[in-house]
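User: quick one - fold this with nickel (II) ion bound?
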Amino acid sequence: MALLPIVHVPDPVLRRVSKPVERVDDELKKFIENMLETMYEAPGIGLAAVQVGEPLRVFTVDCAEREVSERGEESEVPKREPIVFINPKIVATSDERSTYDEGCLSIPDYYADVERPARCTVEYLDLDGKEQVMETEGIMSVCVQHEYDHLNGTLFIDHISKLKRDMVIRKFTKIAKANKTVFIG
Ligand code: NI
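Assistant: Sure. C-alpha cells for the protein plus nickel (II) ion:
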C-alpha cells in the first residue's frame, strides 16, 4: 500500500467531471486500498479519486464513530468501517435540509457551514462490483453528498457565498504560487 498525494485548490483537476469506472478489477482495488490508506492518514472521513488526481467515479467514506470506553473516554484508535462507492448515483434527496460545518482535504484548514438535503439515497457498486443501495442520514449523508459533488467537479465552497469562496480561492492560489516559487528557486 502507498500514500497518494492529495491535490489542493486551485488545481484544475478538481474541476474535472470524473469518468465512470468500466471494470472493477485488481488494479482498481489496489488503487482504492491506497485511497483508503491516504484518507485514514490525512485524516479524513471521505476521499474522492479526483482528490488524488484520478478523475474516476469512486469515493471512499468512513463515518464510524470512535469507540467509547465504559468510562466514557473516546479510544485513540477509531473503529474502521470503510465504505467504497463506485459509479455512485444519488437517486433521491429529502426536502428536509440540514446544515453542517464542512471541510475538505483539498482545502486544508478551512471550514464553513453548508446546507444540504438532510437525507439521500445512493446507488453504487461495491468492491465486488455488486450493486448496492444505501439510505443515508446525518454525517453519512453529508459525506456522501460532499464526495459525490467532487465527481462532478463541485467543491463545498461552491455552496457558500461568492465573497467567501473568492477569498478562499485567493488564499490558496497565493499558497500554491509561494510553494512553486520555493520549489523552483
Ligand atoms: Ni472534499
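One thing worth noting: Residues 104-106, 146, 150 surround nickel (II) ion (CB under 6 Å).
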